[in-house]
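We now fix the convention by which a protein and its fold are recorded. The integers have meaning only within a learned vocabulary of local backbone shapes. The record below shows the convention in full.
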Amino acid sequence: MKKVILFALLAIATSMQAQEAYNELRQKAKTTVNDPKTNAVVKQISQFKLDALNYMAIKMQEEMPDSSATFLDKQAIAMDNFVNFYVEKLIESTKLPNVQQVKMIKMFMDASYSNPLFNDKDTELVLSYYNSAQSMTRFSLDTDWRKAVAAIAYLYKIE
């Protein structure tokens, strides 16, 4: 009986922590977007993160109402890692020829586009960043971020 109660408490705590991680990432992005002192590039990246997190939560509630907060948390963390790694590689690529920069950007775009989570048919919304040449984060909102991270890790041979 003690094991059952301990397991239930652990599951509840894990679920709460997961939701807290999603909420923390969302709040950080929202704060950055709303701060008038924030650099325009940082603001644009944070706006993507905020929109991706909002999209993810709404679609999960619609399409996967029985999914756990842990699943949302893992997707949110993977999205944050994907975007942060992309920015890191984008900065590093400034020293490379333009052709290599474009190739690197397309690798990330493809990893996002090729790994949908919901198979959302609303392509206008889902690809709003992807199709915008002005966007630094040209990714699909409908992305299984864990798979996208795995795809990029494979391409960069990261363990």
Remarks:
- Confidence is low (pLDDT under 50) at residues 1-16.
- The two ends are 40 Å apart (CA to CA).
- Helices lie at 2-34, 40-63, 69-92, 98-113, 123-126, 145-156.
